Structure to design on (882 residues):
């Protein structure tokens, strides 16, 4: 079978004022018709750059510096913008990450499809309409003809992504480049979209390049895989071989870092090739250190008790009550978390899991219901001295490491803030020493104290957030999707760190995530949430072995298949 | 455990040179020229007592016989009075320098007043929200429906009427600063409120709340420093507007008394003589005003682009 796309020795450079950055170095890969090629790597690996270089849409001032891109036997490099425009859309279709922004909100779905069809195929008028209906049906949208008149906002995220795929198919292309097509979608929709892409690939004999950071997506859909690391392809091969028996050290590390849904490991295997790995951590002796003084003694007392919690958000304001539109974000939620336990809250976006976390942290006030922290009611009289004192024992780690640190404060001041505010030490020198110890303990090194947050990577910033939370000497730590913005290898080191801290300090942890494999590794018990209500609370192993609620079963079925990974992790 | 040197940060100068804003400044000739002109203007007016050939406030240096002399190069001009003299025999160049100093001082003070008032109200409004927000912002909205200069005249008028007659001239400057500052604040309040709404939703503010910091400390330490970028931009443009507002008030005879001339007062005095052919009394102060305002505005424009991450 001849190659559809053949890239040889591709170099891509980004000249900047601090010197030239080589985003891709000597990249070679091939795609055959009817084949899905997965391009996998962590952020900064250059995987999206390759996709953009093929269609000549590199962000300025990037440029292709060397190598060749042969598409159906023709060289794509050195074409004019006009020629490239014909190639894009007509022969190469594109699917982008965010369906919210790849559709024009002011035009109907039909208008956008017909416009693309007319431009790429020359079909006009009612025939173009018919073609649009065909395309929408092909991507699995029912009542296609009626929906031509709908606007993008009337569609859900998954449906929008289907429309984006229909747009990519409009010119009847031979190759489709999908850049993180499911990253912005919930897991249940992710599976449908991946199935759709695979089906279209087989039916139409399309070549597909799927660019992703997610090994799960690769395992689900790809026939062959290219693993990228720092601008280079380190390994290429059939998916079963790469995931099951990787050769290159980086691939091995990457796969070892993927959380497994099928078994529970005590820690993630420590891997090389990762910034700020576990090895360099200089730990402090918790037994004698300031940090350990307030350590919880094991007891059977409940750390968090939540009873019949309710909270509604106003969607539409109105004077009359009946005209108001409310969203029930938290619907009669009750659970208890035992001391020293890791309690997982899992659900898709909009399930209310983060809202519950924020209620417990005191960022929202509930409409009704009570929250007790270590037996102290913090909801009825939130301003009372006991409630304030109880809430100090609760600290939170947030999802986005880029917005969770004040960019204008040095790391020293960020971490020292709670210590200074509550005057927890007797002198400023002691405070500074404790901050340095904390930074050491979370694996950053004391030198980090004098820097500003922007000098750190995402994973390092998350370590700063953890140090800040620890500085309050909490008994309860709420982690709200602490790793979902991070690369998988960094995620593994952060999860290891959280687990170590939880054990050392006897912390009670409320762990919130949409990622089932992650929660399996982390928690002792799990609550599954949907539409603001809890569906099921069960021990982790029991939930994964025998889910009782229909929705839990559904969620578990949607998990990307990991059986290809085999025993590579060990 | 801290055996290696901790002090590895680059020096402040190194940090500045590495800064994107510095880089954008070095690479935009317009901004550099504007900054140079602004700097020259400001240095010139503030060193007026050192560089001006005469002191227009010293009666012994003023001679009525030298009144209404044209610029040095024109027919009848004297070389010691480079830009001519006004009706009272004061050297125009010296008067412009001294007057410019007053104008710039009033402008800066008025902007500072408006900024402090507007930013505090804006941040409080954005962070607390609810009724507080509604009240503050509706006051700002109502104030913005009245043309700024009319409001400044009104405040100025009330201020002067309240003061006893004997201290009126002495306090005229402060009344003008108050009038312009009070007119200015809604702009600052709106910008600061907008920035606060964005910042307050970020997770670092929530983290501060979880730590248990009180609202005032969160506003002061976390939100305020992160709203200053857009505020700085409108403060620069506001400075140009405040200088113009002062000139307008003085031109209308509502501002600084003629005994301590500002640029606006000079233009007003000159205006009376314009049709007698004594063009220089009004022309040179007007040019000085235009150059100053233009340079400050250019600087503000560049700053808006350089500080806006979306345009970078």
């Amino acid at each position: 079978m001849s190659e559809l796309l053949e890239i040889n020795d591709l170099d891509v450079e980004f000249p900047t004022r601090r010197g030239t950055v080589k985003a891709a170095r000597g990249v070679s890969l091939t795609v055959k018709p009817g084949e899905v090629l997965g391009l996998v790597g962590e952020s900064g690996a250059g995987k999206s750059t390759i996709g953009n270089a093929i269609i000549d849409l590199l962000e300025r001032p990037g440029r292709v510096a060397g190598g060749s891109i042969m598409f159906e036997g023709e060289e794509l490099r050195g074409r004019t913008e006009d020629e490239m425009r014909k190639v894009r859309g007509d022969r190469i279709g594109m699917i982008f990450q965010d369906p919210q922004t790849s559709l024009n909100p002011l035009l109907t779905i039909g208008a956008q499809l017909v416009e693309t069809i007319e431009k790429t195929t020359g079909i006009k008028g009612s025939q173009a309409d018919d073609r649009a209906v065909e395309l929408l049906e092909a991507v699995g949208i029912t009542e296609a003809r009626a929906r031509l008149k709908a606007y993008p906002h009337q569609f859900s995220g998954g449906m929008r992504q289907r429309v984006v795929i229909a747009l990519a198919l409009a010119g009847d292309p031979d190759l489709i480049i999908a850049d993180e097509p499911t990253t912005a979608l919930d897991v249940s929709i992710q599976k449908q979209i991946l199935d759709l892409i695979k089906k279209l690939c087989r039916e139409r004999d399309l070549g597909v390049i799927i660019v992703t950071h997610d090994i799960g997506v690769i395992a689900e859909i790809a026939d062959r895989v290219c693993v990228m690391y720092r601008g280079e392809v380190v390994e290429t091969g059939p998916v079963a071989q790469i995931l099951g028996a990787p050769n290159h050290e980086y691939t091995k590390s990457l796969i070892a870092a993927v959380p497994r849904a099928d078994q529970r490991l005590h820690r993630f295997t420590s891997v090389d090739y990762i910034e700020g790995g576990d090895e360099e951590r200089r730990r402090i002796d918790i037994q004698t250190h300031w940090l350990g003084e307030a350590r919880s003694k094991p007891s059977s007392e409940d750390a968090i008790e939540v009873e019949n919690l309710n909270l509604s958000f106003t969607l539409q304001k109105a004077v009359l009550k009946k005209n108001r539109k409310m969203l029930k974000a938290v619907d009669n939620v009750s659970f208890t978390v035992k001391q020293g336990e890791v309690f997982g809250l899992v659900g898709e976006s909009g399930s209310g899991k983060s809202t519950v976390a924020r209620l417990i942290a005191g960022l929202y006030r509930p409409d009704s219901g009570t929250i007790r922290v270590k037996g102290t009611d913090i909801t009825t009289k939130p301003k009372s001295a006991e409630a304030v004192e109880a809430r100090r024992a609760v600290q939170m780690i947030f999802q986005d490491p880029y917005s969770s640190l004040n960019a204008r404060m040095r790391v020293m001041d960020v971490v020292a803030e709670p210590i200074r505010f509550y005057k927890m030490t007797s002198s400023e020198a002691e405070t500074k020493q404790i901050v340095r110890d904390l930074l050491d303990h979370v694996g950053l090194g004391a030198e980090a104290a004098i820097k500003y947050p922007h000098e750190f990577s995402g994973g390092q910033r998350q370590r700063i957030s953890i140090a800040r939370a620890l500085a309050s000497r909490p008994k309860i730590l709420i982690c709200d999707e602490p790793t979902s913005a991070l690369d998988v290898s960094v995620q593994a080191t952060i999860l290891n760190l959280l687990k170590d801290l939880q054990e050392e300090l006897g912390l009670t942890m409320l762990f919130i995530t949409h990622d089932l494999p992650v929660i399996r590794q982390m928690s002792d018990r799990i609550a599954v949430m949907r539409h603001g209500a809890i569906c099921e609370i069960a021990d982790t192993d029991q939930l994964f072995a025998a889910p009782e609620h229909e929705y839990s079963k559904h969620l578990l079925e949607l998990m990307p298949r990991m059986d290809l990974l085999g025993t590579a992790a060990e | 455990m801290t055996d290696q040197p901790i002090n590895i940060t680059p020096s402040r100068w190194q940090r500045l040179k590495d800064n994107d804003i510095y880089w954008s400044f070095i690479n935009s000739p317009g901004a550099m020229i504007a900054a140079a002109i602004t700097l020259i203007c400001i240095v010139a007016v503030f060193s007026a007592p050192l560089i001006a050939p005469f002191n227009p406030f010293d009666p012994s240096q003023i001679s009525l016989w030298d009144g209404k002399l044209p610029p040095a190069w024109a027919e009848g001009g004297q070389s010691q009075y480079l830009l001519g003299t006004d009706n009272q025999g004061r050297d125009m160049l010296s008067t412009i320098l001294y007057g410019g100093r007053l104008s710039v001082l009033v402008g800066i003070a008025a902007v500072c007043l408006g900024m402090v008032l507007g930013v505090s109200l804006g941040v409080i409004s954005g962070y607390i929200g609810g009724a507080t927000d509604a009240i503050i912002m509706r006051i700002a909205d109502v104030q913005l429906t009245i043309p700024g200069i009319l409001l400044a005249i009104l405040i100025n008028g009330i201020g002067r009427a309240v003061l006893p007659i004997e201290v009126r001239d002495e306090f005229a400057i402060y009344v003008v600063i108050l009038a312009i500052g009070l007119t200015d604040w809604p702009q600052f309040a709106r910008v600061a409120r907008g920035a606060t709404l964005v910042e307050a939703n970020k997770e670092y503010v929530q983290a501060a709340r979880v730590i248990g910091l009180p609202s005032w400390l969160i506003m002061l330490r976390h939100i305020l420093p992160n709203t200053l970028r857009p505020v700085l931009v409108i403060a620069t443009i506001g400075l140009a507007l405040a200088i113009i507002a002062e000139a307008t008030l003085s031109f209308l005879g509502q501002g600084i008394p003629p005994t301590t001339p500002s640029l606006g007062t000079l233009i007003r005095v000159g205006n009376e003589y314009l049709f007698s052919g004594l063009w220089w009394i009004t022309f040179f102060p007007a040019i000085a005003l235009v150059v100053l305002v233009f340079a400050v505005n250019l600087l503000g424009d560049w700053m808006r682009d350089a500080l806006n991450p979306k345009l970078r």
Summary: The mean pLDDT of chain A is 85.
